[in-house]
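Worked example 3. Consider a protein that binds magnesium ion.
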Amino acid sequence: MTSFFKTPIEFLKGLGPQKAAHINKELGIFTYADLLQHYPFRYEDRTKFYKVRELNAEMSNVQVKGQIRSKQLIGAGRKQRLAVQFADETGIMELVWFSGINWISPKLRTGVDYVVYGQPKRFGSKYTMAHPELEILTPAVSQNEFLQPVYSTTETLRKRYLDSKAIFKFQKTLLKEAYNRIPETLPPHILQQYGFLAKRDAVVQIHVPKNQQLLQKARFRMKFDEFFFMQLRLLMQKKVRLEKFKGQLLQKTDLLTEFYQSHLPFDLTGAQKKVIKEIFSDFKSGKQMNRLLQGDVGSGKTIVAFISALIAIDSGAQVALMAPTQILANQHYEGLKEFADKIGVTIALLTGSTKTKARREIHENLKSGELKILVGTHALLEEVVQFQNLGLAIVDEQHRYGVAQRARLWKKNENFVPHVLIMTATPIPRTLSMSVYGDLDISIIDELPKGRKPIKTIHQYDANRLKLNGFLKKEIEKGRQVYVVYPLIEESEKLDLKDLMDGYESIARSFPEYPISIVHGKMKAADKDFEMARFVKGETKLMVATTVIEVGVNVPNASVMVIENAERFGLAQLHQLRGRVGRGAEQSYCVLVTSYKLSKEARTRVETMVRTTDGFEIAQVDMNLRGPGDMMGTQQSGQLDLLIGDLREDEPILSIARQSAQAIIAKDPNLESEENALIRRQVENQKKKNLNWSRIS
Ligand code: ADP
Ligand code: MG
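Given these inputs, the predicted complex is written out as structure tokens:
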């Protein structure tokens, strides 16, 4: 079967080498398999004919039967247009062409029945359709009620008449030959369980749907296939990992009990307890943990990390925490040290700016086992950093690290791969975490500590600056502190720095009575630290900064976050920034300042921020706006390269597919049973890869 699907498309009837070359180049379609997997991205509803009188301006494309009454050329030169009066028994509308007039005009005949297809626009009292599709009404066409697939193509291809319609024609030709050769990919027990169409019928219905219902069934089946094998692959990777790597047994809890009894500064939330249990059960399992801990900003991940560390330390292991930036490493160090000091656990910070002497001391104490917790940046990965017994590696803000970097941390223990806890403060939609982190176990802190007042978020236009300043003054008089954040995007760094400086000066003029801190990326680390420290101590009342404060900063007394040029920030960033306030007992505010001119997307971002503080909801909107690949960065985008599944809308199907894959692996971990033979073959095919078709067959 594979050799057929590997046939170059030029051999398809009606296609030929020239067209094939263009399609190869423009769409990356080389073989029959590629072509069949070039699925329509939408369908036009040709199941109904409308009357002119039924038209309204809200309609998308519709088709109407009628006759041409007259045509007229209006204007001259580039402004010229062809206006055609088109009527049925209920009224008249106008068809217009602005280009290709010489080509279309001679073809238009009066006294002939046509079907036109296009989007009606209201123009005065009349409806017009610009550049509609036009077809002579034959008995066949008049009964032709169908869903018209629309394929993506390119301008270059369209110029060569290789438009969506042409691709549709090729698909129909190919399907005739391919139908009997398309292999089933799922065993009967799964087909039955979900009432799936056979694979070959699903492929046909995707390209040539008989009706909506069959189309939906076909899409469900095809999406399931894609997700199912993706999940199977991830789960099998996980299984291999669990078998290959033993985990250090970490199960003593004396330290933990002491900490709980004497030093726990607050009651843990239910979500924190749940997550700690999940981690502890991994520690006790003898298997190596690989767990993603998701928790919104302020949800209390630090204490969870610390408690996990305590369990590890109690069993004689050491703990490393790696953060992506110095500021963040610093913050983690401060946060953990507060707890560590209480119970007498040794902790140190290692970053690029650690002095040689301190560094040497850290290296020694780490090797001797004296030092229990080491927090730092990627400086931790250096060869000279040797642990006596690294048992737990905590990695913060995972998406900034590559898998290879994480692996270097693992190698720091020769006997055991350390347990790995990856923390992220950027909520990830479920579909994304199932795909990108599908081989990890996932823990979610989905509850904020009690007593937090929800942050009030306000959208304010530039022009209302006086009012805004008045509000800030009042808050400062109440004893609060204020962040004012400016964007810093690399391409326009100079301009942004100027914006920041202008902003700083204007704030200094508006608030002459208050000391102000300023922090930006062009400052020396020591100066930054100094300014930051003044703000943390409350010596300065306002902090003017670029996004360097985006992550990690914890100043509970700061209760107002003003974000300038908020339209230039992405949703994830806005959410992170807002998370810097709302950490104390006071009512906190986030003010998004924008100009009047906002793109549709920017408006959606601002409105979303005003509407909700739920990080998962925000992440979902973010994914819908940017697409999953963009959201996760290029590193993971390969895994997100789906042919038909859509992580924006297919969470139900993905969940079912994952459950299904889980159930199969639980019963038959190596896919050895007869009933799973088909699945096993698929998986083996996928390993050979390269061949695109292998992904679905
Ligand atoms: P994040 O998840 O953003 O890292 P942190 O661990 O920094 O959150 O916690 C945010 C703040 O909430 C800290 O000041 C922390 O002491 C406090 N906190 C954490 N858990 C609780 C809790 N269960 N009850 C009350 N306060 C808590
Ligand atoms: Mg944190």
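Take a moment to read the result before moving on. The first strand starts at residue 42 and ends at 46. Confidence is low (pLDDT under 50) at residues 690-697.
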